[in-house]
Amino acid sequence: xxxxxxxxEVWVFAEQHGGKLEDTxxxxxxxxxxxxxxxxxxxxxxxxxxNCTALTDKLAYYGADxxxxxxxxxxxxxxxxxxxxxxxxxxxxxxxQIVLYGATPCGRDLAPRIASAAKAxxxxxxxxxxxxxxxxxxxxxVYKNLLFQIRPAFGGNIIATIINYDRWPQxxxxxxxxxxxxxxxxxxxxKVVTESVQVAxxxxxxxxxxxxxxxxxxxxxASRIIVAGGAGVGSKANFKLIxxxxxxxxxxxxxxxxxxxxxxxxxxxQVGQTGTTVRPSLYIAVGISGAIQHQAGMSESKKIVAxxxxxxxxxxxxxxxKIVGNLNDVVPKMIKAIREKT
Length: 342
What we know:
The protein is an alpha/beta fold. It has two domains: 2-203, 3-Layer(aba) Sandwich (Rossmann fold), CATH 3.40.50; 220-341, Rossmann fold, CATH 3.40.50. It has helices spanning 23-39, 55-61, 80-94, 105-118, 240-249, 257-261, 292-295, 327-341; strands spanning 2-3, 10-13, 16-17, 20-21, 43-49, 66-71, 98-102, 122-126, 128-136, 141-153, 158-162, 170-174, 191-195, 225-229, 252-255, 282-286, 303-308, 321-324. The strands form four sheets. It has a seven-stranded parallel β-sheet, sandwiched between helices. Strands 15-14-16-17-18 form a five-stranded parallel β-sheet. Strand 3 (16-17) and strand 4 form a beta hairpin. Helix 3 crosses helix 4 (105-118). The longest helix has 17 residues, at 23-39. The radius of gyration is 22 Å and the shape is globular.
């Protein structure tokens, strides 16, 4: 039986842009705290940027026991080379056992570069993380307290559990929205470790002349009610019913990947494995068959209402309320009933 180095901390890359902390690292702090507590180690946030000291308090409120703060004017805007160099140096210095990144455009760009430099494994787009033991049958060797990196594979048809028992640190990117947002505890304090950063202009192969960040058209993760349509809606004209029902309920309109690919609705509204993961109080699925890729993004909704012409549609297996019928008949009746009551 081999014990993993349990002295190493659990780290979360605290992605920020323009002094604003992204949601994904906050979500990761909740899972990171769970992992760190199970391992009996500290949870640390890794904060890079320029003039971002004020964010250390917020990271403490959300669960960080420690914040490694690396500030430099050349870190003011994200670039792969400079960020990867600083983080790799910190990993080499402190030897964490786990490093987590959000599966955001930034995280997906940064994490592989660091994994390559550290010669460590990396699992992308995880939907869950656990601590467990792994036995190698050929030698009967048991590795204890490994990070189980869990993600959909083969188009979402199976769930794979990936481990890394001989290369450190264990690293993963985690899809946004799959971990619950933790509650703030404003009484918490974190130890801030200020690092001396060695970054030169040679580490920045690009000159960023201007930066434009496009805001999403809808915040699905914050929506209490979501009305989603799938390919079964049939046409973009029919999809207007989804918008009408959403407006009646004060809900966010959404769609499946198939609906997005067909041009019924914009990608910002996509729910599912390759879209946003949501947990609303009410999720109304209209014309959605319920493929596992879509269920991965909405199955934890508190109440699910499904409308479909196929009584054997997989969506009915997870729906709390099931309506078998044509959406062109059912949805207008739903809208009429809601309007009459309001």
